[in-house]
Design goal:
With 81 residues, the chain is an all-alpha fold. The protein has 2 domains: 43 residues; 36 residues.
Length: 81
């Protein structure tokens, strides 16, 4: 049996190499975005870091309240509990 008849040889198909090139390109782009974001984070001042922590705490509080409200609404909807 030749390689062209072998079903495992699908990875040799041109579409495989096109997909691989596309994924490698996307990987490089994401790596570049990660590096840029990392450099920006390294430039954050202590005051900005504290502001971010404060905003993050507020965000977490809102999400917790949303979760509680959603659970209460689900309880009312289903009549469980």
């Amino acid at each position: 049996m030749s390689a062209s008849e072998d079903p495992r040889a699908d990875w040799l198909a041109p579409s495989f190499w096109d997909d691989l090139k596309r994924l490698e390109s996307r990987h490089r782009q994401l790596q570049k975005e990660h590096d840029i974001a990392r450099r920006r984070l390294d430039q954050v001042t202590p005051q900005e870091a504290e502001e971010l922590r404060c905003i993050w705490r507020q965000y977490c509080e809102v999400i917790a309240e949303l979760d509680e409200t959603t659970a209460a609404l689900e309880h009312l909807r289903t009549g469980t509990g």
